[in-house]
Design a protein that fits this description.
single chain; alpha/beta; 7-stranded mixed beta sheet; globular
Length: 388
Amino acid sequence: MNKINVLKPKYRTEEVLDEIKICLDKGWTGMGFKTVEFEEAWKEYTKLPYAHFLQSNTVGLHLALNVFKTQEGWNDGDEVITTPLTFVSTNHSILYENLQPVFADVDETLCLNPESVEKLITDRTKAVMYVGMGGNAGKLNDIKYLCEQYNLKLILDAAHMSGTYTKDVMPGGGAYASTHCGWEADVSVFSFQAVKNLPTADGGMICFKDEKYDKLARQLSWLGIDKDTYSRSGDMGSYKWEYKVPNVGFKYHGNSIMASIGLIQLKYLDEDNDFRNQIKEWYDELLDKKDWCKTIPTSWHTFKSSKHLYQILVNEKKRDEIINHLYKNEIYPGVHYVDNTLYPMYSLYGGTCPRASEYSKQLITLPIHLDITKDDCTKIIETIKEIL
């Protein structure tokens, strides 16, 4: 029996190896060269004004908070409104800067509920951290307007959103414009981690709206040095050693090997996401009018989802039994995610987000990746039905 895993990357191996070989032949595998090329390609693809390639989405979220804290005069203990229904890296990044996460509840899309967010805004609130769960934009546009109203920074954790396109009503109403997500936020941070839709083994992209933040982030990601090695090397054959260190920074920059993989993966991102949406349609058809589960609706603001995850909600008393039965049949679903307030560092907020807590106990992520077939989807659903 073939195992069916929840997530699995796909690489165009020969193309990737050819791209990496360019780096090896030139003897340049670090920052610069291919990282610059990948950044330019990402800007062209997303139409976002700035992009900087990093080691991961996690370091990008930390870098964004560090830049805003130092440049906007935030203090230790200032608050960032965030979601408890996310991977812990989202909220750990807030703690890295000695800021206080404040948890708002989610809506039916598993993204932040704007009404819950607004109730939590105080004079200590500095930003909202928004997670586009599974590629769904949720009510991101409403959060955008809320942040503008209260003069808050909007940080988009777009780890699941490579290839998610969003729409907004154009001036005068009636029509709408669509573009790649990220334009809504002051900074958007994407993930290219091993099982994401655009996998590079690891990596991330930080996209600020403002040039001054982008420039500072580039320095800070290379230990606060004013000129990185690539910019001091011209044609990569004329190395100059002199540089200044105006800031204490981090070693967060990406490298040319990962960027080379990303350049190839980006060529196929829309095509791959189209197939992921086909898998969604297969599941939707199989689950139509089933009373034992609920699917997650796609919001109006989402023009096209990357469909990184396919999540369902089941009776919490049956959830673990369903998962274990799937395991026995070599089908390996996931749970995205555990309510973060169950972890000790966030337990202060336990019980404050009842909807997120309820969903966390009911969620199952069904296998969704580029090797899934329609027969696989049928087998997965029929296997679940065996114990209902």
